[in-house]
Design brief:
- This protein has 131 residues and is of the alpha+beta class.
- The protein has a single domain, classed as Ferric Hydroxamate Uptake Protein, Chain A, domain 1.
- It contains three helices and eight strands; from the N terminus they run ααββαββββββ.
- A five-stranded mixed sheet has the order 2-1-8-6-7, covered by helices on one side. A three-stranded antiparallel sheet has the order 3-4-5, covered by helices on one side.
- The radius of gyration is 18 Å and the shape is globular.
- The N and C termini lie far apart (54 Å).
- It binds cobalamin.
- Keywords: Signal.
- GO terms for molecular function: cobalamin binding.
- InterPro entries: Cobalamin_Transport, Transcobalamin-like_C.
- One of its GO terms (cellular component) is extracellular space.
């Protein structure tokens, strides 16, 4: 470790302790449109990791969670299907991304799964719905 990094560690303990721990989140799959039961998956993410990484981590450790996405040139990954159910342009269905924050408020992020950075204890809701 360089002298400069050692100095930073000594001077910025507050800043450093704010970050870096594993961030617990839950991913909730909601599909009332087809009368399916709510499914909840728990995972941990690294500090300021993106939602797409969390979805991949859940998929890799959980045989009953699958998802697919397509790559949009301008906006990045578009969530196409979850657990075998895909959005359909002709039927006007899609997987909406909602977030229930730790204080219980529900919000609709203005970015997709590749850009959204979950905070600790958020419930990320993948909601199959119509537009
Ligand atoms: C219509 C629309 C939708 C429709 C698209 C349906 C359809 N087949 O037409 C629906 C309702 C499905 C939709 C969903 C979402 N959308 Co939208 N959508 C738009 C809107 C109003 C117009 C897009 C359009 O038709 N462009 C014209 C066509 C000719 O160009 P296009 O490139 O072919 O358009 C495609 C892409 O825009 C794509 N698309 C639409 N939204 C999104 C979002 C993401 C993250 C991606 C990767 C692709 C994508 O669908 C279009 C049709 O294929 C734009 C805002 C705007 N005025 O541009 C927002 C916009 C693109 N959407 C946005 C967002 C955030 C979302 C959601 C993540 C919202 C949410 N919280 O759920 C979801 C996507 C979730 C997922 N499954 O990944 C943001 C993206 C910003 C960003 N940098 O990530 C925009 C810019 C609006 C905003 N809030 O500022 N959306």
């Amino acid at each position: 470790m360089s002298a400069l990094s050692t100095l930073m560690l000594l001077l910025l303990p507050g800043t450093l302790s704010e970050c870096c721990g594993p961030v617990p989140i839950a991913v909730v799959v909601e599909n009332r449109l087809q009368g399916k039961t709510l499914l909840t998956y728990h995972t941990y993410m690294p500090y300021r990791g993106i939602l797409l990484g969390a979805l991949k981590r859940i998929r890799d450790s959980n045989a009953n969670f699958t998802f697919t996405y397509t790559e949009n040139l301008n906006y990045g990954p578009y969530l196409e299907s979850v657990n075998g159910v895909a959005g359909n342009t002709a039927k006007h269905t899609y997987w909406e991304l909602l977030v229930k924050t730790s204080d219980g408020k529900i919000m609709r992020p203005d970015v997709g799964i590749g850009c959204y950075i979950p905070s600790a204890n958020e419930n990320i809701i993948l909601n199959f719905t119509m537009y």
